Amino acid sequence: MLQDSYSSGQHLLGLLNDILDLAKIESGKLEVHSEPFNLPVLVEEVKPIAEAYPRKPNVELVWPDLSELPEVLVDPSRLKQVLLNLLSNALKFTKEGTVGVQVERHPGYITLLVVDTGIGVSLEAQTRLFQKFAQADGGHSREFGGTGLGLVICKHLMEMMGGTISLSSEGLGLGSTLRITMPIA
Ligand SMILES: Nc1ncnc2c1ncn2[C@@H]1O[C@H](COP(=O)(O)OP(=O)(O)OP(=O)(O)O)[C@@H](O)[C@H]1O
Ligand SMILES: [Mg+2]
């Protein structure tokens, strides 16, 4: 019972924070404070939190080797929020296989990818998931829970940090890849 009331509390807190973030973003009051930051440090902070998220027994979390990366220009706590959001989605929508974080270095920017082997997203749904309350299938909210605010908040935050976010999936049942880019400091 204690565990149940703790999880319910956490769930409500998450929901409340999402609603407050979105209200702040929409009223133009949310500020991001970008600074040069070390990505490996940030990923190390995210790891234990993501490892503790609920996931199916046959799902493995795979972390990248992040040595020798340049610093990125981000608001560390907001980037952490985005990464955790993407990881919680990936873990929620993956029944078996892997959820992996990958990194790519490009001229002037770094891409972080969250790649999963989960239920994937149809081409039709891919075009609308970055809108408020959008979920691929209305039925999802029942099977998987959630409100449809995570990705729209991530999109605003990434753009405020001078970055981007995009989703790609070969289709239903074929896994999803979420990509975020951020400037090198
Ligand atoms: N990794 C993923 N695999 C499959 N579908 C995804 C994935 N990430 C997001 N989606 C789809 O995009 C929708 C919107 O995601 P978003 O994070 O905005 O909302 P949510 O997870 O449903 O709810 P919330 O984040 O508010 O708790 C999801 O409901 C799901 O349909
Ligand atoms: Mg979500």
The count of DSSP E runs of length 2 or more, i.e. the number of strands, is: 7
Element pattern in H and E: HEHEEHEEHHHEE
CATH topology: Heat Shock Protein 90
| Share of helical residues | 40-55%
Taken together, the total number of domains comes to 1
First CA to last CA: what distance?
47 Å
Strand content: 15-25%
Low-confidence sequence ranges: none
Number of helical regions: 6
**Order of neighbouring strands in the sheet with most strands:** 2-4-5-7-6
Q: What is the alpha-carbon Rg in Å?
A: 16 Å
* Heterogens: adenosine-5'-triphosphate, magnesium ion
What is the top-level CATH class? Answer: Alpha Beta
Report the structural category. alpha+beta
Keywords:
two-stranded antiparallel ribbon, globular, binds adenosine-5'-triphosphate, 22% strand, 5-stranded mixed β-sheet, alpha+beta, 185 residues, single chain, Heat Shock Protein 90, 6 helices, binds magnesium ion
